[in-house]
Amino acid sequence: THTHTHTHTHSHTHTLRLRPAFQMLGSMKVVGAVGAASVALAALYWRRRVMPIGPCAADGRPLPSGDQQVMLSGNGLTRYHLNIRWLKEGECIVVLIHGMTSPGVDVWRPLIACLEARRRCVLAYDVAGRGWSHCAGGPMTIGYHVRQLEELLDTLSIGDRPLELVGLSFGAVIASNFAVRHRDRVRRLVMIAPAGLFPPRDYLGLLAGSGLLGLLARVRWAARCRASLKRDYARELRAMTDGGAVLRAYIAN
């Protein structure tokens, strides 16, 4: 009787230990699938929501003190922050580029204050269609965003200055593509949580097995965006999601 009771208790203990592990594994799969679906939905939602002017300008909010706007031929008004007080001959300008879902320049306020306290010249701006920046409409490709930065630098008469680029999420994609085009001007490239530099197969596999792809296919605006997403982003997405190839090419050059 004693042996039977001991064996039963021992087996029950293992069951109690293993059950949370299986539950945790299942939860991880669900969280991963939901996370992958959220990313897909956010990208499609952002694609659909891009307006001729950024959401802050559309809501009629006043431009924050110290910020300015400049007219660019490529996408209209662009909000920027630039303290020329610390602009010294030969020194690098720190350019801050926010992510796709960030609130524009405002996400950088603490870092801007820190850098300017060290007498660094900082340029931060709203990516086209975000914050107080306008956009011209049409395909919002990576090349489009790079051209916005190029024209902004030229319009502000700092197009020939050496740069230190800091990109957050999608801003890192813009920064890295700008660096490839202007290798002689970029002294440093800082990529914070860069979009695309991760193996997508795990996330796509979780999404494929979750049943959410069928739900996405039934959303009418997602179906309408499907063709344009393939047309506008196919080449860029292939490059972005092969993080190893991107890093090897960057190191080689």
From TrEMBL:
InterPro entries: AB_hydrolase_1, AB_hydrolase_fold, AB_hydrolase_sf. Keywords: Membrane, Transmembrane, Transmembrane helix. Residues 94-194 form the AB hydrolase-1 domain. The keyword Transmembrane applies. One of its GO terms (cellular component) is membrane. The chain crosses the membrane at residues 26-46. This is AB hydrolase-1 domain-containing protein. It comes from Emiliania huxleyi.
